[in-house]
Design a protein that fits this description.
mainly alpha; two-stranded antiparallel ribbon
Length: about 240
């Protein structure tokens, strides 16, 4: 286990330059020392690093061609090996440290500077706050796994959701359903149903998501819990299947 550090706001301004974002730059300890602070938390970064090394090397051909599979493979490991309370996970400085100081190579691997990726969008992967769950490179994976894992199925629902880019975007990139009970219920229903029956039908997923969002505008997802939200999702699926 290793002590977790956090990057200060001064570190973001001084270390995350355009050159750092575009080039293969890794800072040494003397360069980052003025901008890091020790936290009270520990994480198994050695084991997590081994997972990152695997997907970037032995599994490179597979994961370079399918970023959804990459997220599905890495997210459970991020949550498992950085086993901290949510109040700690809400500290953006921890995630900025991991992305900027610990493993910037992984961030660049996940979002290479090509196609639609810009310096501005990649900068967000290094420095965005945890208020935007879909942007920070490691925080997004931690919260995706934390919200979708279940006591019965472990990280099975996490992996199922993250291998489908559309539904992952739907649940985490837009805020109307970004509540633990709603996300967990969506993931569990998707995990338990036949893929073709729900998760592979983007149109159905969107209809159910919109209908559920409308329902939860007047009903508290936390009050009825993941099981209650799951029943609503099942009802909406059957309703739209009958009407189609």
């Amino acid at each position: 286990m290793e002590t977790l550090y956090r990057l200060t706001t001064g570190g973001e301004g001084n270390l995350v330059t355009d050159e750092f974002i575009q080039d293969d730059i890794t800072y040494d300890s003397s360069e980052v020392q003025p901008f890091v602070e020790k936290t009270d938390y520990e994480a198994d970064l050695d084991s997590l690093g081994q997972v990152l090394d695997y997907v970037m090397n032995e599994g490179r051909h597979r994961f370079e061609s399918d970023r959804s599979d990459l997220d599905a493979a890495v997210a459970p490991a991020v949550r498992k090996f950085i086993d901290v309370p949510r109040r700690a996970a809400g500290d953006p400085g921890i995630w900025h440290y991991l992305a900027v100081v610990w493993r910037p190579d992984y961030v660049r691997f996940r979002w290479p500077m090509k196609g639609t990726t810009s310096i501005t969008s990649l900068r967000e992967k290094f420095t965005k706050s945890t208020e935007d769950l879909y942007a920070p490179a490691f925080a997004r994976l931690w919260f995706m796994a934390d919200f979708t894992r279940t006591e019965d199925d472990g990280y099975g629902p996490t992996e199922k959701i993250l291998t489908r880019q559309y539904i992952a975007n739907r649940l985490f990139d837009r805020k109307d359903l970004r509540r633990e009970a709603a996300v967990q219920a969506f993931a569990k229903v998707a995990y338990e149903r036949d893929d073709a029956d729900f998760i592979d039908d983007n149109d159905l997923v969107e209809k159910v998501a919109k209908a559920l969002s409308h329902e939860l505008s007047s009903i508290s997802a936390e009050a009825i819990g993941a099981k209650g939200v799951g029943k609503l999702i099942e009802q909406k699926i059957e309703q739209f299947k009958i009407s189609s």
